[in-house]
């Protein structure tokens, strides 16, 4: 999962980036509205943390332009505690949630998890596919009661696939959501990670859709539909 943080306070920007990365996300950052708008307009993000009081272009204008251009990624806005009008303006501009400053980093993490989950149509932080359970809050994956040992990249890939289970996800899409903007992306590495995951979770949960990409499905539900 890939997050964009747009915050002009250098210390807070750094704290948010570190906390999100420690929670398993890939994080890009911007320190002003123009840079933030450009990144959100040209890169695919699963969620954006957007401060309202930004130089160059304020956060409300950034958000309005994204929505006018059809950008639908979840956006969490950060507002000053005494500016209730910011909350109203942000929601009206297309924000999905807001947090008032000062805040606890844990609250940001919880709201980001919830926004990503809801955007994919999930109600719980525990996502299931057949014998596999992925707890996105604890960054843990379990198959048939056994906790898996996964690298950070393997967990990111698994998390993205299970968030979008039953959907065909291309190698390019996976690559774009696994690495930040500065990474030298190579979609061939996705095949390597998929191969490793299959050995750990079972080969039948991740289906290769020839010429299109991958799809995570519960083989038991496919069999049930086939026999219906």
Automatic annotation (TrEMBL):
Positions of the OmpR/PhoB-type domain: 124-218
Query: Short name of one Pfam family for this protein?
Result: Trans_reg_C
The highest taxon in the source lineage is Bacteria
4-aspartylphosphate is found on 51
The UniProt keyword set, sorted, is: DNA-binding, Phosphoprotein, Transcription, Transcription regulation, Two-component regulatory system
Which residue range or ranges hold the Response regulatory domain?
2-116
Annotated membrane-spanning segments are none
Q: Which biological process terms from the Gene Ontology are attached to this UniProt entry?
A: regulation of DNA-templated transcription
- GO cellular component entries: cytosol; protein-DNA complex
Under the GO molecular function aspect, what terms does this record hold?
Answer: phosphorelay response regulator activity; transcription cis-regulatory region binding
Which residue ranges carry the DNA-binding annotation?
124-218
> Could you tell me what this protein is called?
Transcriptional regulator
According to its UniProt entry, this protein's organism is Ahrensia marina
């Amino acid at each position: 999962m890939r997050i964009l943080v747009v915050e002009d306070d250098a210390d807070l920007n750094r704290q948010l980036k570190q906390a999100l990365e420690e929670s398993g996300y890939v994080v890009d950052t911007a320190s002003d509205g123009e840079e933030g708008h450009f990144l959100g307009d040209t890169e695919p993000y699963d969620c954006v943390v957007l401060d309202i009081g930004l130089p160059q272009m304020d956060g409300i204008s950034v958000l309005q332009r994204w929505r006018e251009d059809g950008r639908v990624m979840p956006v969490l806005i950060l507002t000053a505690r005494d500016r209730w009008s910011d909350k109203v303006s942000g929601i009206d501009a297309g924000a999905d949630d807001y947090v008032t400053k000062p805040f606890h980093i844990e609250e940001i993490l919880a709201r980001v998890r919830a926004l990503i989950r809801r955007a994919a149509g999930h109600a719980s932080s525990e996502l299931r596919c057949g014998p596999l359970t992925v707890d996105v809050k604890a960054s843990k994956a379990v198959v048939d009661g056994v906790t898996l040992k996964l690298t950070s990249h393997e967990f990111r890939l698994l998390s993205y696939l299970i968030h979008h289970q039953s959907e065909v996800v291309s190698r390019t899409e996976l690559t774009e959501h696994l690495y930040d903007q500065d990474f030298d992306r190579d979609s061939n590495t996705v095949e390597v990670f998929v191969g490793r995951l299959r050995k750990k979770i079972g080969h039948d949960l991740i289906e290769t859709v020839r010429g299109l990409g991958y799809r995570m499905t519960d083989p038991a539900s496919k069999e049930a539909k086939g026999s219906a």
